[in-house]
Fold these 2 entries.
Entry 1:
Amino acid sequence: MSQDRVALVYRQLRSMVERFDFKPESQINEVALAKKFGTSRTPVREALNRLVAEGYLTFQARRGFFVKPFNPDEVIALYETRVAIETEMIRLALARNSHDGLDALIFDLDRIVAQHQAAEDLEQLLDIDELFHLTIARGAKNHEMERILTNLNSRIRFFRLIDLKFKRSHPELKSEADVPGHRAILEQMRNGEAENAARTMRHHIERRRDEATEAAARAFASIYFADSTT
Amino acid sequence: MSQDRVALVYRQLRSMVERFDFKPESQINEVALAKKFGTSRTPVREALNRLVAEGYLTFQARRGFFVKPFNPDEVIALYETRVAIETEMIRLALARNSHDGLDALIFDLDRIVAQHQAAEDLEQLLDIDELFHLTIARGAKNHEMERILTNLNSRIRFFRLIDLKFKRSHPELKSEADVPGHRAILEQMRNGEAENAARTMRHHIERRRDEATEAAARAFASIYFADSTT
DNA sequence: TGAAAGTCAAATGTCGACAATATTGCCGAC
DNA sequence: GTCGGCAATATTGTCGACATTTGACTTTCA
């Protein structure tokens, strides 16, 4: 034992950051975290460095690690990046695959859409939604885009969760779920209409962007004034 | 003194990796590096962790850090990602900026194209070329895309350098420089033709992709059999 | 001879301590 | 009362050592 602390610490830290357990712009205290996790500072620092490189945190020499300032513009930027990546992914997935490969991909997507409808809780809903998009990424056979999309999704997740929770408690606002959007994309892919599918994907993501941006604005106060679990 | 070793080590390591001073797939020995840099293993490990998160290296628990296998497909993936990012960047830059903002952006781009023609060596040529694209990224006002593009460029750089060196020593193959392509993109942006500019950008990058892929194939042997500077 | 088990050197994983630096709090001067 | 500077304190940066694990080599036994 006592061998894989970095991985443990990394996972925990990342989910803490994703949930905004730390206040934005607050400094992250290495010794406090080390104590919390029962390790020395070494694994904590390694994990923090990874999180910086992945865009979750910032770092200033001799000052330490900081949580990125909370900023609706940043959320918008993340969604815009998704639009860029995902519209191109669709083109690649359709151009790159043989007929059989495409059939297999569409078969997988069909199943995911079906699961989507049966999702039981919000976390699961998001998992399945992200899986739909990630499966297309895999169909595009571009590891780099897959990597980037995974990263974007995890950084966006918190805001979507906020949005979904809000919608659930205000049924009158309930917008259409993601399922119809996914189904439309799927049909156009099935028909080989790359540009149409890309356009639908763009609008699909842009709608989510607007929802998440609103959610971010609503969440602003609660994040800034919530207790950080030191 | 003895305070900012990580930054030093990181920069050196990155340029070593970019130049393929390490053989692809070879394991990276932490103690050897530490000795080489005259530090302990701690700063080396932090730098290596960053390089993993940035896509330069891979890591296997209890086995260590490895150079990514050299793989023309990977180069193609990097270029495809650039297409995705940069075509969208152009749309954003044109949609997002006021008339004056756009004028300023185009003024900057004009100057960069002029510098481009006057570049003295290959490294400088690449710097200026990357600056053209990065300036558009800044015009798009999307930090995330800027970050990603910077990362992509630095990982692609080696292959472009190989290509340019090869072209220089085989003047009969000399393809058109990047300048005309940039100029065309610039003109279309000036006229507000977002979709045309995006399309030109796509073709521009795809041409580079083909050149770099060939260069990668040519470089294959020399990389795999070159001495690694332990 | 060949395969399994054991041994050992080398590499990684983690730690606690110390050095360098930044931040905070205090005190006196104006 | 406020400002600037100094001391005290907290935090980061780096190190060398030790623990654990891996992988290669050797030995042993069928």
Entry 2:
Amino acid sequence: MFSKSCEYAIKAMIFIAQKTNEQTRVGVKEIANNTDTPEHFTAKILQELSKKKLVQSMKGPNGGFFMTKKNLGSSIADIVKAIDGDGIYKDCVLGLKACSEKNPCPVHFEFKEVKKNLISMIENNNIGTFKEKLEGGEFFLKNK
Amino acid sequence: MFSKSCEYAIKAMIFIAQKTNEQTRVGVKEIANNTDTPEHFTAKILQELSKKKLVQSMKGPNGGFFMTKKNLGSSIADIVKAIDGDGIYKDCVLGLKACSEKNPCPVHFEFKEVKKNLISMIENNNIGTFKEKLEGGEFFLKNK
DNA sequence: ATAATAGAAGATAAAAAACTCTTTTTATTT
DNA sequence: AAATAAAAAGAGTTTTTTATCTTCTATTAT
């Protein structure tokens, strides 16, 4: 469904949301440890997310990544678009360049519904929602 | 969503369904040409599909691939499972090994619905349906 | 026998994922 | 202020996976 990079990005974003605010920050090592992702690869992804302003960062001692109120408003779709691009919005499931409403591939209309469903899910769930849900301890981000 | 192999497999299967029956067969070259897929790679995928009995094959002059009535009953899900495996059925969207109903990742229940929708679509559309639809010339498999 | 075709194995290429090392920035300490 | 150390940023490398191509073998209709 999503690339590994994107999976890592989503997990990292949810973890940062849960752990930080304007004052407290969290470092790459802690993020990686708590999301079961490779540290250096995660660092690279965080750079990208930071460059695209989905997350804030600060260098130096006690530096790290953190989120503002505004950042908590990012949807999963925003993360997916930042990392994997908008392929799931516009690409044909069978990879046909010319596939469109007027010139549809055999599965075009069937998948249209599936995609609509998927897209509405990722657009309607923002990072803030997970922060709240996680506070109840109902969810996990790490393999045991 | 699916791997390239899987995209090619679906297109090839639909093409074969459309063009053949127990008597007429179609060769790899023609399949590749008409589905915009790399010939040799497609040949390899067809070997796999043939080994798994999703499509029939015959060697020799006038040989090629073809489908029986039974083969027309294969669903897209059957093709996906044959080529990409059952990852979309069982893997966590965030790649968490330990994710389950009892131990869910943050997006588990949201994606459950999306997956259900996707799975029902690929299970309820079989190759035969496309054969009929294609006969009306409403769909295409090739970039222009 | 011959030629056309799929099957199989393996080589090569390209892309994605993962890791390493160096540089830059900046808060803290002196 | 200057020095130090912590941390992100960035560049570059290696490894792994996926995709593609090549070559050879087996089968079968003519």
